[in-house]
Amino acid sequence: MSPQQQQEAIKQFKAGNVSQSAIVNNINTAPQVVIPKTTPPPNENNAIVSAAESATDATTLDENKKQSNKPDVNPPRIKLKQFGYDLFSGTPTTFAPATDIPIPTSFIVGPGDTVQVQLFGRENADYDLVVSREGKLRFPGIGPISVAGLRFDELKNSLAERIQHQMIGVRANVTMGTLRSIRVFVLGDVIRPGSYTVSALSTMTNALFVSGGITPVGSLRNIQLKRSGKIVASMDLYDLLLQGDTSKDTRLQPGDVIFVPPIGKTVGVIGEIKRPAIYELNKEYTVLQVLDLAGGMLASAYPKATQIERFTDGGDKTLINANIMGDPLASPVVHNGDVIRVYSALEKMQNIVLLSGHVQRPRGVQWYQGMHLTDLVPSTDDLLAKPDLKYVLIKREILPERNIQVISTRIDKALASKDSEFNIRLMPRDEIIFFGLGEERSTLIAPLIEQLKQQERFNSPAKIVTIRGNVHFPGEYPYSKQMRLSDIIRAAYDIKPLTDMDYAIIARRINQQGKIRAFSVSLEQALENPDTDKNTLLLAKDDVYIFSISEYKDKTGKLVSRQTLLAPLIKTLQAQTKFGEMAPVISIAGSVRSPGKYIFEKDMQISDLIKAAGGLTEAAYTHSAELSRYQVVDGEFRESEHYRINQSQLFSKDKTKNATLQPYDHLYIKRIPQWIEQQAIEIRGEVRFPGTYQFRRGETLGSVLKRAGGLNPDAFAKGAIFLREDLRIREQQEINKLSARLESDLAAMKLEQSQETGKKVDVQTAGLANSLLSQLKETKAAGRLVIDIEAILQPEDTEDFDLDLIETENDIVLRDGDKLYIPPRTQEVTILGEVQQSTSHLYNANLTREDYINLSGGITYKADSSRIYVVKANGAIVSNETSWFAGNDISPGDTIVVPLDADRMKPLTFWTNITQIVYQLGIAAAAWKTVGAF
Question: Chain centroid to CA 316: how far?
Answer without folding.
Answer: 45
